[in-house]
Amino acid sequence: MAGPHFTASVLPSSGVAVGTVVAVEASSLVSGFDAIPEFETSNVALLQMEDATPSDWGASMKSLYQADSFALKMILRAAWGMRAPHVAYLTGATW
Asked: CA–CA separation, 44 vs 69, rounded Å?
């Protein structure tokens, strides 16, 4: 944040190595979604009920069968791609 002042938005990511800067031309990035989502229900699933980093699998699991509950799952197919290869990156940045 204390480095060069860019005119474009700068977004941090933990998925990129320290010292690496990636530039993507936003108009080259495209996405597409299926028009109809898929829905499924189940009363015999085992759910992980923790939204933080799980440390112990058994501690936060819930059996829908034992709790006499059901779950609803929605799947919406999506895809991303580049219309043109307008991507640049720099490694070893110290600013």
From this structure: 9
What is the enclosing helix (H) or strand (E) of 31?
A: strand 29-33
Locate 43 and state its tokens: 């009363």
Query: Which tokens is 44 given?
Result: 């015999």
| Tens digit of each residue's pLDDT (9 = 90 or more) over 5-59 | 777 777 888 889 999 988 888 888 899 999 999 999 999 998 888 777 666 666 7
Residues 47 and 91: beta-carbon distance below 8 Å: no
- What is the pTM (predicted TM-score) of this model? 0.50
Q: By the 8 A CB rule, do 78 and 31 touch?
A: yes
CB contact at 8 A, 69 and 43 = yes
